């Protein structure tokens, strides 16, 4: 069975962008692949995090992975920092990375622009991501479109290592899961859990009132046509994408349904649809969040991941000469 690896940062409560762009697809993939889903807390600390909040976000993310339907008998769910091999291999991957190629990453440029005291970890974020993936002999990495560049670099680093030292790493394929979900307040910007403007995103744990308010105050385009046209109507196209993914209805049939009805009716139905999808997930989430089940799953996950990671870590250390003969 082919191996899948993907990760999500516990840097805030997940948004529907994370859900529609990644998590929802993980649930389908687990039936046909051997899956590892990681809570990448070491990536999260590349920007400052409150320690208590970080702990809570990790627990929430684990409970959400389960609440959306990941079956722990099929998928391994674990926390990155509980598997030291990730940081160990990350150091080796840093040593085959060039500063120039790390500086060219758009995420690094976006997150460091105009800031003082940018952490070195933000620059070396991609080699850690490469380590996550390469440690498990991953065949396929399912991610949202915003991660494409990091995945290309992962392949470059794996190939470079294989040529310079020993041919041990599988070059993973990237599986882009769909269109990027944009901020409700600015359709030029991706919806992000770390956005300071909370009106820009819908959190997976937002209640009905908040969801309705955020969708109703989402920016729209100048006319009243519910029509998909990313170039000229980016805001409404984004809402149509969200509607389509939540309802599994084609965009063209949604456009037909709302012909001549204007934005008001469309937004109000979208709010209702969002609430109807999130409510059962939230119900399951709160049961899990308060139970011991989450800890048991994470303990088992870290055992499995630690066992699996050992083989490739050892091979990489041998290849680079990091062990005594
Ligand atoms: P992160 O935590 O930003 O996002 C997790 C997943 O959600 C997708 N995503 C989106 N998809 C559509 N629209 C959006 N607005 C949106 N926002 C986020 C992301 O593409 C991603 O699939 N670097 C990664 C975490 C990571 C990782 C890995 C992923 C670390 N190691 C190894 C895969 C394999 C990240 O920051 O994801």
Automatic annotation (TrEMBL):
Motif 'KMSKS' region boundaries: 190-194
EC numbers for this chain: 6.1.1.2
Compartments it resides in: Cytoplasm
Function: Catalyzes the attachment of tryptophan to tRNA(Trp).
Entry keyword annotation includes rRNA-binding: no
Recorded catalytic activity of this chain's protein: tRNA(Trp) + L-tryptophan + ATP = L-tryptophyl-tRNA(Trp) + AMP + diphosphate + H(+)
Binding of L-tryptophan, residues: 132
UniProt subunit comment: Homodimer.
GO biological process: tryptophanyl-tRNA aminoacylation
One GO MF term: tryptophan-tRNA ligase activity
Classification via Gene3D superfamilies: HUPs, Tyrosyl-Transfer RNA Synthetase
Sequence similarity: Belongs to the class-I aminoacyl-tRNA synthetase family.
Main location: cytoplasm
A GO-annotated cellular component: cytosol
Residues holding ATP: 9-11, 17-18, 144-146, 181, 190-194
UniProt keywords, alphabetically: Aminoacyl-tRNA synthetase, ATP-binding, Cytoplasm, Ligase, Nucleotide-binding, Protein biosynthesis
InterPro entries for the chain: aa-tRNA-synth_I_CS (IPR001412), aa-tRNA-synth_Ic (IPR002305), Rossmann-like_a/b/a_fold (IPR014729), Trp-tRNA-ligase (IPR002306), Trp-tRNA-ligase_bac-type (IPR024109), Trp-tRNA_synthetase (IPR050203)
NCBIfam families assigned to the protein according to its UniProt record, in alphabetical order: trpS
Annotated motif 'HIGH' region, positions: 10-18
Principal EC category: ligase
Protein name: Tryptophan--tRNA ligase
């Amino acid at each position: 069975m082919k191996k899948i690896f993907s990760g999500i940062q516990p840097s805030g409560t997940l948004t529907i962008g994370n859900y529609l762009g990644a998590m929802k697809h993980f649930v389908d993939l687990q039936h046909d692949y051997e899956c590892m889903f990681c809570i990448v807390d070491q990536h999260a600390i590349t920007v400052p995090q409150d320690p208590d909040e970080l702990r809570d976000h990790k627990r929430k993310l684990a409970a959400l992975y389960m609440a959306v339907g990941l079956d722990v008998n099929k998928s391994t769910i674990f926390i990155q920092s509980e598997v030291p091999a990730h940081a160990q291999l990350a150091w080796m991957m840093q040593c085959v990375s060039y500063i120039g190629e790390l500086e060219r990453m758009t995420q690094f440029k976006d997150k460091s622009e105009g800031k003082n005291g940018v952490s070195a970890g933000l620059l070396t974020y991609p080699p850690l991501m490469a380590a996550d993936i390469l440690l498990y002999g991953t065949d396929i990495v399912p991610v949202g479109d915003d991660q494409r560049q990091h995945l290309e670099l992962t392949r470059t680093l794996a190939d470079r290592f294989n040529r310079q030292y020993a041919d041990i790493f599988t070059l993973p394929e990237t599986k882009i899961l769909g269109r990027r979900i944009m901020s409700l307040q600015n359709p030029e910007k991706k919806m992000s859990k770390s956005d300071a403007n909370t009106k820009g995103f819908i959190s997976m744990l937002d209640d009905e009132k908040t969801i309705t308010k955020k969708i109703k105050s989402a920016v729209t385009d100048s006319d009243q046509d519910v029509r998909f046209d990313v170039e000229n109507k980016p805001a409404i196209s984004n809402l149509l994408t969200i509607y389509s993914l939540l309802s599994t209805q084609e965009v063209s049939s949604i456009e037909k349904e709302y012909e001549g009805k204007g934005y008001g009716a469309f937004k109000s139905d979208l709010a209702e649809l969002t609430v109807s999808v999130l409510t059962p997930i939230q119900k399951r989430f709160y049961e899990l969040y308060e139970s011991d089940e989450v800890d048991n799953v994470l303990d088992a996950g870290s055992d499995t991941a630690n066992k699996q990671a050992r083989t490739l870590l050892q091979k990489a250390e041998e290849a680079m000469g990091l062990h005594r003969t």
